[in-house]
Amino acid sequence: MISIIIPALNEEKYLTKLLDCIKKQAYKDYEVIVADADSKDTTKQIAKKYGCRIVKGGLPGIGRNNGAKAAKGDILFFLDADVQFDNNFLKNAIEEFEKRKLDVAGLCIYPQGNNLVDKIFLSVFNLWTFSTQLFYPNASGSGIMCKKWIFKKVKGFDETIKLSEDMDYVKRCSKHGKFRILKSAKSYVAMRRFEKEGRLKVGLKLLLSGLHRLLFGEIRSDVFKYDLRYRK
Fold first, then answer.
1. In 165-198, where does DSSP find H-type helix?
2. In angstroms, rounded to a whole number, what is the distance separating the alpha carbons of residues 41 and 81?
3. Which residue ranges make up each domain of the chain?
4. Which of 119, 149, 181, 185 has a CA that sits 20 to 30 A from residue 129's CA?
5. Can you tell me the distance from the alpha carbon of 229 to that of 36, in angstroms, rounded to the nearest whole number?
């Protein structure tokens, strides 16, 4: 069984679309866990309507950890609430994951919509994660698959990290198991933060945060003022 874990805060605009995508999957051996961070909208009601299990959330790392601790599956699949994908997404992901004998994996991510800047930005991101996967593993929280034993081995996501806790997680996992970027499962992400704050501003923050991690280690302060609780 795959345990799909979704951290959420006021995600009524996006969660229904994601859960519809999951419901239509050709692969059916899964459970869905929504880690709700005390949403004030209808997020919890939507999750209940779709038969999801609900656990206490918080910042993304906390929500993912709480969801994983409650998971029944041997494989954990962390997804953000604003992603979408086609009907063979889970089938393709699990088949490639098992065929390549992986322990942890990330995805290539693509923008929802047709904005050229978004397409270029995520193409660069995908090229970076793919080309560095053998020696400097990185993956977006928009899609991380891992075996439950390796989650326990590294004691989950580091809840003290302010930004890029997903990148840190796969880096630590890769020290104990085989990591790769999946080629066959595509995740389409909402570009809402780029639209709200400005593409140049967010892109610069992410570039500088990547350099900070490379040169100085993980980000445990609010130096980049990147609001992990952001929801639109």
1. 165-173, 192-197
2. 14
3. 2-216
4. 149
5. 12
Kindly give the pairing relationship between strand 2-8 and strand 75-78: parallel
130: which 2 tokens? 């793919």
Is 67 exposed, middle or buried (CB count within 10 Å of its CB: 0-12, 13-18, 19+)?
buried
Q: Which of 100, 77, 102, 103 is nearest to 25 (CA)?
A: 77
What confidence score (pLDDT) does residue 198 get? Answer: 72
Contacts 24+ apart (CB under 8 A), 198-205: 199/117, 199/118, 199/121, 203/121
Q: List the 144-147 sheet strands across, edge first.
A: 53-56, 30-36, 2-8, 75-78, 144-147, 104-111, 179-189, 83-84
Residue 14 CB-half CA count within 13 A: 22
Between 60 and 223, whose confidence is greater? 60
Residue 179 CA, distance from chain mean position: 15
Q: How far is 82 from 98, CA to CA, in rounded Å?
A: 26
Handedness of CA 117, 122, 125, 127 (dihedral sign): negative
CATH number of the domain located at residue range(s) 2-216 in this protein: 3.90.550.10
What pLDDT, in 10s, does the model give residues 57-79? 999 999 999 999 999 999 999 99
Distance of CA 197 to the CA centre of its chain: 21
Chain segment 180-214, per-residue pLDDT in tens: 999 999 999 999 877 777 776 666 666 766 665 66
